[in-house]
Amino acid sequence: MRYREALNQALREELEADDNVFIMGEDIGVFQGAFKVTEGLLEDFGEKRVRDTPISENTIVGAGVGAAMGGLRPIVEIMTINFSLLALDQIINAAASVRYMFGGQVGVPMVIRMPQGGGHQLGPTHSHCLEALYLHIPGLLVAVPSTAADAKGLLKTAIRDPNPVIFIEHEALYGRKGEVPENGDAEPMRFGEAAIRREGEDVTIVGISRQALVAADAAETLADEHEIEAEVIDPRTLRPLDLDTIIESVKKTNRAVIVEEGWPHGGVGANLAALIQEQAFDHLDAPVGRVTGADTPMPYSKPLEQAAMPHSEHVVKAVLSTFRDL
Amino acid sequence: MKYSPTRMAEAKAEDQQQGQTEPHDGPFPHAEDDRSPEERLPVDPGEHHDLPDREHCEEILRKMLLIRRFEERAGEMYTKAAIGGFLHLAIGEEAAIVGATLAMRDTDFLISTYREHGQALARGTDPRRVMAELFGRQDGVSKGHGGSMHLFDIEKRFMGGYGIVGGNLPLAVGLGLASDYQETDDVTVCMLGDGAINQGNFGESLNLAALWSLPIVFLVINNQFGMGTAIERASAITDLSKRGDGFGVPGARCNGMDVLDTKDELENALRKAREDRTPQLVEAVTYRFRGHSMADPEEYRSKEEVEEWRRRDPITTFGERVKDEDVLSQDDIDGFDEEAQSTVEEAVEFATQSPFPDLDALYDDLYAYSGDEPGWYVVDERAPETHKGEDLREHSSDAMRELAEAGAAYAKVGDAEERRKRPDPDEGEEPSSGPRDEEGGGD
Question: Are residues A167 and A212 in the same domain?
Fold first, then answer.
């Protein structure tokens, strides 16, 4: 099953399971979603449950927050993560803050879904990776599924979670296939549980969003060409964060490299590197390495765009650099 | 300078010819305005409404007096530094608040902006818990997490004050959507100031409300200033009741200094929203007698203008009317006033005696947990050890506690021991910090 189909299935199952669940966003109904994630939902669930909205991101998100405060379980689709910047007021000042600032009298059980990522030559306003921005904000949860199974499992969990969840998909993953458990086969996936994609003794590579797959590719190269057995961890949710699994791995491997597509300053890797050195300093044999996207807006021209994105070679180099003093 | 968009444009053109960039003659155009306040800001008195029966007149006066006395006392407590941050008082706007809320059903939602103490009181929130929130105490409506701008009372369906101008409009759309989705006949009243009219949210939210036929009444409390900027210096169209037309939200205007006119207009709007499923816009023209916040020196308007509006005081004018028409006597009114003052005194007493929140409450109500979630929700980087947020209360270490106390000491409201215990009620002591340091600006 493709990643987009897995998302569609999760939406479908949760719409069936709970009448208070509904989805709204730009072109999700008649058009069936800019990336076809909501295909067929309007036909099957009708206009009350699957609502096309005008292009008003801040108000769409805010209406979701208000509806959640009023007892519903909204899923808001934002077409591209860059568009969510128009909704930062409602995401930060409302969704993330309402429970806290009103002393817990009301919660905001809602999901804000959005795709991110480069690789489609969409240039500087449609290609960024902003998970670090949302990770920064207390009150939000952040999910970054990299496989079809996680896309489905985490989305179902997000919809049932009592907190506002920023659910970040990746455009380059929508067409990617993977095994997905049938409904009922699997326990509900839990937030805050990292997946160890590959076990290894020599270095811990933490890959965020699509970079979890890039990290896994790099690990094969490291094993084949450099006799380095890397442990690859996909945190799956950045908040809550399964820091324990990461720290445990680093204590075993004594090396860590964090791979993300977003920018370096204040990035997820910067944050994880800080936490790792705080909690496993005595176990580190080398500085924590980072691989990030280029520190620029995303360029359009294909060679430039690809040059701006992290690839397997970057990860291999970064890992090797943690061994250079041996 | 005359008050008309055309005149403004002409003046601007003249200034530009003279190489000036300012569109007016001096820094404070109202102070130099040669028109009388009556000329500059005429108020349509609205329709004449018969007085309701004695019981309703009493209720109106009681509520307006409670808000007035509460706000006055809050202002005093602010100057004594018992209340922190900014404090936005609604003195002068009582008719708009009480008229609007009296038109609502208990099951209707009210969502407001940051000048909202009166809205909470008018909806029936316990004045003691409102004052305790202003004092930042544990028994505040928002447990001391919110403050003046973030009151909330789920039981009274008062869905909050919000500190972002226009930030509550999308939320109102969501509340209206929830009512519509759940097929109730509840209506959401969304109060906003004239300053919010020019936020993008205004157009987005009115459009969506009209597009989806949501039961919402957008009530513009037009007190004629967005902070210190007069409405005609911020809005090309100053008849705000017309601002919904292009979005499919019909508008009406009422005299926000007249509680009966406001109530009548809101009743109309609520009926249309409830029965016809059409969102409505109502503009209540009113005036705040005090500054934007307590930190406002009010250099943008003249004393004469404020005086002129004080002559239209909504409580005095309504009081005169009920006396003239022999519904209530001066003694009755004095009695209500005494009641209001004693309620407010009780609220101050209660707030003073309520403890500050336990320092371990810092992370409370940030996330909803079932208790056994894996993973780190928050990372505490404020102590040598880092901790998971949901466990902070249980695993709070001596070092963390010590540092939290060290931080809290900067609040200068007694030591840890004092902060945790309720003061002796007999002493009725007010907070121990000194008078407010008046430096700095105000939002």
Answer: no
